[in-house]
Write a structure and sequence with these properties.
This protein is mainly α. It is built from 4 helices and no strands.
Length: 70
Amino acid sequence: DLNDKASAFINEFINLSKRCSLPTKISELDIPKKACVKMSLEVMKQKRLLINNPIHLTKEDVQKIYEEAW
């Protein structure tokens, strides 16, 4: 099913990042968690990128994504 394929892709991407010694979390970049709020506000200014997203995202959605990636 599509969700299984998406999960497999994500897991492989994370594993590849680890094998290449690349960070897999925002916190590994020494970015404080409180920066997620400001980053989500900045993302909302990128209209050119947001209009191509098939899912409408709110600032809260983006902030949650950043916090989960932190």
